[in-house]
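So, can you check?
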Amino acid sequence: MMQSEMQQEEACESQQSHTQSGQISGSLSFNGTSTKEDDEMARSALSTFMAKEEEIQKKKMEVKERVLAQLGRFEQENRRLAIIREELEALADPMKKEVAVVQKKIDTANKELKTLGQTCQKKEREYKETLDAFNEKNKEKVQLITRLTELLNESEGARMQKLEELSKNIETARRDGCSSSISPVYQKNVLKYCCC
């Protein structure tokens, strides 16, 4: 029964891992506006992250298998010792001291199992926190790239508008026959702005 529950838990964790992987993949795309270098960095980061995740899952499964194996042995030993204890209590108890030693070892093993369980929970929390931080930083990167694109578009629009105004001024001056009245400094500034 305990092994069945552990298998169900592992299946849920595997499904959750695939869901989180999908969320990461989704968060790395931002409507195709990234450069090739950004895509390469995102793929590299995702590949590294997935490799670490697989390593964590593998180690986690190894610990769980060891814990399950130990639990199975300890349960069998507990049942066997309970039977032995009942038989010994019905008789004069020449093995009481040995039984007490074994029971003490079982208690020690149970404490170690508890510590292992707490370690597993701590690693799971660290994994979740790392995943959240990764997604948050990636979201921030997407926002910064979007803002950079907006700034570039605004700058380009402002420069084009200024160039159009200068072009109209020059055209007006030429039509009016006043091109000779434009100061050399103004002409220099116009040429400088056009070359930027």
Notes: The chain has one domain: 2-141. Confidence is low (pLDDT under 50) at residues 18-32. The longest helix spans residues 96-175. The two ends are 76 Å apart (CA to CA).
